Task: structure prediction
Amino acid sequence: MMNNNDILQGFLFENASIRGELVRLEESYQEIMRQHHYPLPIRQILGEMLIVASLLSASIKFKGRVTVQFQGKNHLKLLLAQCNHKLQIRGLAEWRQAFDETTLLAELKKGLLAIIMDPETGTGNRYQGIVNWQGDSLAESIEGYFKDSEQVPTRLWMAVDETRAAGLLIQAMPRESARLSKESARDDWEHISHLSATITAKELLSLDNVTLLQRLYAKEDVRLFKAQPVAFQCSCSLSRSENALRLLGRKEVDEELHNKQKIVVTCEFCSQEFIFDRVDVERIFKQDKPNSSHQVH
Ligand SMILES: [Zn+2]
Result:
């Protein structure tokens, strides 16, 4: 059974070249937020980044993952939100001290925000696009990115509270040249944008998708596609942790064992701990060389 609180659902305007996506995260969002003790402003921005990663994954054509990444310099070092083609999401933040909204915004404006598309090994090239921070919100910055870098009109609304995160995206599709003039396509875009902008955070968080679309686009002919389940899933594993130990080298591992009797490899995303004792270490280093993946994740 799919839970209706963690879904990505696409829709289409039958009489305009515009598509849309709705995403809501509840259990997946809560699970990610439980993994670390994030201050409130970080929960907010990380929730938004998870929404963006999920929404963008809807339009990727390859098998792989979308990462929304922020690298800062001072109090906020890293924000990562990832969603793969199976709609498995995970997220992570690294920060130096508890801070308020103002500090967060100042940090965001100073850092580097990027959208990274990673096809699975052997299926294509990595793509990285830099997102310039615009205005006072992530939504505005992402809209600006699509306008400037992709020349695709895009609007985005997001809402996050303690237990849920939700987002609405609308995006212009390539115009079917014979059917639509440039002017009518622009008028359609203005019209649908205007209707969409009446959404409130409360509605976005609490209404189900059918009711929400009815509320926003009552007079429009909207085709709603099947909802796809979104879930938290981390890609860390026992074998990846073992690989990490092999790469660390026998000498370092033995020193650590000597000091602490056991070695703990903690996943920085989900905080899962993989614990190895002396017997495990013997077994790990008896096996073959580490395979090509050199990361724990
Ligand atoms: Zn993990």
About this structure: The domain at 238-286 is CATH 3.90.1280.10 (CBS domain Like).
